[in-house]
């Protein structure tokens, strides 16, 4: 095999997404003194610029970490050892979050799901209503379940918590949702939003985020889990002066500033509309192929990625291998209990119509080469939609 | 208009081609002393590495210039004022070359063509046979006519010159052909090959090249046109020690080294096969749309670009405008006498199947949006071919 | 204030160090699928290439984190709640590490120091000898104390532990020492080495490291502190296949590979000798100015940075401000209890003689402009040494 | 020899100068369609932004070429075969320009100089006064003679031409002067200014420039030298719409826009003052070493570079070799008739005080190591001046 493949790789996993050159060039700038005035000005600017991306006026904490670290941070800052947290199984990532909770000494109570629907707000309300003693300290759900392509209706979960009159904190993982799918930290009454840099924010991985609410901050003051690296108070104390309690990931912060600028230049609503449009085009392609979409509820279709279910007897990972080798495109594997039974097409981040057409063409050709019995016409269906000829 | 468009621009003009990141990063290295040992080692390496790309063992001259400069260099080094050169009108670029010859004091004799065929070797032979006095000092043809998508059969032109027993120098412009279409400087008995950096070599524009033959070098010794910047002798004198007679375009030479490495890693034959494959897929798309290909001779189809003829009453430039605005893709305009009557799809340089699918999708959707009466199915036809299902 | 300052900024804090262009360009490459074969090959390569930098054959764990995170990781993987750890106060960073230990529920016992000497191995031996019940579970020291410019003799601490016959784990922070100062994880019998990316490794901040010993791994199996993000077992389980338990900081790993290559190309011994030479030149400059060096023990002079003590009545931060404004150079502040009383000159990482000369010139000129009563001749003294004329 | 040298190379030849990262990152952007609207907007912007750098309101032509090409362009656009041009020998580059003139069929008449002074305006006036028939068609002088470090007083040459009442065109090479030394195309009545990208403009080499006057444009209409690549008329016809007659060096134009922005952000007067200051500091160092400055006339000291004369019996190239090997710094060689007898220190372009200190330290140490009998104290003298303690 030669060391060189012509043309760009298509990174169509549901994150990390394709990092635009403008951000890569920002990241490439020389590292500066993280205690000097130039950095402090940058930090203050970034900490403000990131807020509208979350649609919040409250503080956003930025960690040098993966998104997984931001999950841990959300819990250790607000909970005490042995606390019960209510979680909802939407797929692999909600499952990982509950495993993490267990590891660090919490008691997650998980409402099981079928991995093909989003969070059932009624089930949440029902469970909370029964928790008369308010032993449940937090409700933790995933906004956009990366493993399945299902986007839960977060506003309804908020309503459910309110309807139950329950004081639990509300925590939402929007690691793969933020900046691709509509998200409203303040309006939806979220106490802790968890996300990472490598999806809708279009950055390489390496930054984890917690957006807070006053209630979450208040809770952190009495929460008894030990914490140091993830401690919000140290961050909240230093951030206003453009400082961080330990060395931040300076170069990724250069990129974050650029990413925020790009999102605002395009307009968040335009960003969301672009992703909805690409998701719809993708689903039309999948249906034209005669394949099933993993998400069963149209109101919960993800604008970020689409899970494609394999016909019985066909291995999704074999298809992905063909597509990687023949067409230099990476797709997402089925994870956990759906391994081999589905693959995931990422259409998030810095993405446009012709990239989508190339992506779907790679899927259509790869499926055929792999011997999966599909009907042609998927790309055509997507183009008909994209060009207003559907 | 916002300052940011999501996703990459599709630069599908027939050059400059999409510059791969690996080359851009090479070019971004700090400039060094062009008289120091590090540069001299680089220069010697590059001057050797570029030879196999031309399939030559003879010297290759590199100018800081556009390809147009390399045309001028070819003529002023070998001709004397008032000399007759035989040229063949394959399209806009062969026409520009003959205009240049006139400007600098030569007498081009042009065999007219219809812009839909390549060089007629028999016509060359016929003309040379009649030139008993050998007043024609050079035969100048374009290998890959960028304005039409017609690739002339250079080996046959060589045979024609030989059959006529004529001593004229043989000069070939392969500005858009080299490193995408098969080209053999030595085997085809070419005396001066003219090219530029921004097509198959995958670099930004800024370098012009002349590959020489011993006969061309000999001719340059008695040629009487004045020359300084373009003078081969100064280059040939300095290049063996890794020097240039004036400051070279250092950073583009960094990129050229990288480009040569990439071409050799992939293998030139693989590069040519890749382009032939993409050209065939493109033609299948064009035919499926019910449109005509500018090139009328299958043996002369260009692997570099495809000229697409508009139906009467439809303006190619209006289509290009729609595609640029809606799909962020640049296509080539019809030039000169075919302005508005055709557009050109570049499929050269650092390019792969999914980029091609995106490119063709942009054309198909744009043609429909622009109201051109095409049949859908072009992308499908291309995919059928690319995936072995044709 | 204009937006542009001519020439490069001199980043002469003791880390982050000046990131070389070669590493920045590596980091700028597009992010790839962290679950795909290309990444897995990269990860395996990097995980091996980093070992000789620590002089270890044991596993090295890489976290997306700051160096502070790597401290926390070292403790939570090996300790149980309430465990006693013996620490030695060499300066601000050893102090921060003990505060971190307290925060996460350990009981640090700190041997106080004067911030002008390194670890007193005899004091360690004395204390361990008295710990007959082996309640001390770990000895934690800082190799190169970044706040003072004192490099402790780690081999002697190892000997002290052995002499006391004590089974405590031996943990060493070499965040600012690794790859600039000689460091030998295996030979010195270190159980956990803690470091970060932004000093001798010449990367931007964002990676934390733990080098392990078999004894540390064994201890981690019974250690009872809760952990998830920092959990070694998850890393050790996945790393052999080129995977990480959560999304790694892909682009910094590109840079890490390049950094390891650069260190090996130069040769670690040459790297250390270069730093020793620059440190000696710096100290000669400081002495020529008539100023005091913070480190009082010649055997403990840091090759990484030099702490310069201000004469009474002169504020180090005012000097630093002058130097930043007039000469665009960042120097390190005095931290904690020496704030304002000293500044720190970083001479670590990707650094050479002429950068050092510029650095010392900036200090000498800035000190004079700030009105500090120094003698000129510091740069001269450094040059005399560097050029072999001392 | 290892492949890696620590720290940045000091590129202190008098051009190419150190290219700032901001410009390198601009150049690294993907190449775009040079016939599309985005490029046209860029071209129009650049063609305007470059004018104030020349202090002109007249057109500036930009060629993909070296500065040598811009010399040729100046002559072939304005002269007719056999024309006489008056030139003044200030050093190697003025000599090369006269050789070029001869090569292309002009008759240069050269007023000889001693390479240690600038243009003698009185000699020009004297010669022109005698040319009653106005056979001299142009006066061609070098503003900043790169080979010697002598900056001619261009305004006085203009006065001399006027005093002689002579109609010759006035052409000035400011290849190494522009954007480092004060230069005023319009005010000084220059007809053609010749420059390149790789000096004060801080770009890599690859762009040549001609700034014009109405008189020069008028002259070009009747000038009879053949020209095509260098033809102004083609450029002047296309530039107003943001086009060029052939493919421009797109990526260098990205850099040129950035360079113009940087110069305007700093302010041209500040740029000039910075260079004057560094030149004075350099001369003080040279004098402190006890060495001679090549330029003998204080009014003509170059702010761009300083030529340092070797004591008898010492070879400047041997010193340069020592400095390159020991200190990774490139200095300029003595050229032509002063080869080996002097070296040149470039202090142009993107340069600051600490870079200068490092540069002078490299010279001082290298001179001593090479055994040149100098007095120490050069860097000290420079620092004294730079810090206001002289």
Automatic annotation (TrEMBL), chains A, B, C, D:
The keyword Transferase applies. GO terms for biological process: glycine biosynthetic process, by transamination of glyoxylate. GO terms for molecular function: alanine-glyoxylate transaminase activity; L-serine-pyruvate transaminase activity. Substrate binds at residue 344. Its cofactor is pyridoxal 5'-phosphate. Coiled coil: none annotated. The modification N6-(pyridoxal phosphate)lysine is found at residue 199. CDD domains: AGAT_like (cd06451). PANTHER family: ALANINE--GLYOXYLATE AMINOTRANSFERASE (PTHR21152:SF40), AMINOTRANSFERASE CLASS V (PTHR21152). Belongs to the class-V pyridoxal-phosphate-dependent aminotransferase family. This is Serine--glyoxylate aminotransferase. It comes from Thalassobaculum fulvum.
């Amino acid at each position: 095999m030669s060391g060189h493949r012509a043309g760009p790789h298509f990174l169509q996993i549901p994150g990390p997404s394709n990092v635009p050159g403008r951000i890569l060039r920002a990241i490439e700038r020389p590292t500066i003194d993280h205690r000097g005035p130039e950095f402090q000005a940058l930090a203050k600017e970034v900490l403000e610029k990131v807020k509208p991306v979350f649609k919040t006026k409250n503080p956003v904490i930025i960690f040098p970490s993966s998104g997984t670290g931001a999950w841990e941070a959300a819990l250790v800052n607000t909970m005490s050892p042995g606390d019960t947290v209510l979680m909802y199984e939407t797929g692999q990532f909600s499952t990982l979050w509950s495993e993490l909770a267990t590891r660090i000494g919490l008691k997650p109570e998980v409402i099981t799901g079928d991995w093909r629907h989003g969070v059932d707000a009624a089930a949440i309300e029902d469970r909370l209503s029964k928790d008369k003693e308010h032993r449940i300290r937090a409700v933790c759900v995933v906004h956009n379940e990366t493993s399945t392509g299902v986007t839960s209706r977060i506003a309804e979960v908020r309503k459910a918590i309110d309807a139950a009159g329950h004081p639990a904190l509300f925590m939402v993982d929007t690691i793969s949702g933020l900046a691709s799918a509509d998200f409203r930290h303040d309006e939806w009454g979220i106490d802790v939003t968890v996300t990472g840099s490598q999806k809708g924010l279009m950055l390489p991985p390496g930054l984890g985020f917690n957006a807070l609410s006053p209630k979450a901050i208040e809770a952190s003051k009495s929460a008894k889990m030990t914490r140091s690296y993830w401690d919000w108070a140290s961050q909240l104390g230093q951030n206003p002066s453009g400082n961080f309690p330990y060395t931040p990931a300076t170069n990724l912060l250069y990129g974050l500033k650029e990413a925020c600028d790009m999102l605002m230049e395009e307009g968040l609503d335009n960003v969301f509309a672009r992703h909805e449009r690409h998701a719809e085009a993708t689903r039309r392609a999948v249906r034209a192929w005669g394949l099933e979409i993993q998400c069963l509820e149209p109101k919960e279709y993800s604008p970020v990625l689409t899970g494609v279910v394999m016909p019985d007897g066909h291995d999704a990972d074999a298809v992905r291998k063909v597509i990687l080798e023949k067409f230099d495109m990476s797709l997402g594997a089925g994870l956990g209990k759906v391994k081999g039974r589905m693959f995931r097409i990422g259409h998030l981040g810095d993405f446009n119509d012709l990239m989508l057409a190339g992506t779907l063409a790679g899927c259509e050709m790869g499926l055929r080469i792999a011997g999966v019995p599909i009907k042609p016409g998927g790309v055509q269906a997507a183009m008909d939609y994209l060009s207003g000829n559907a």
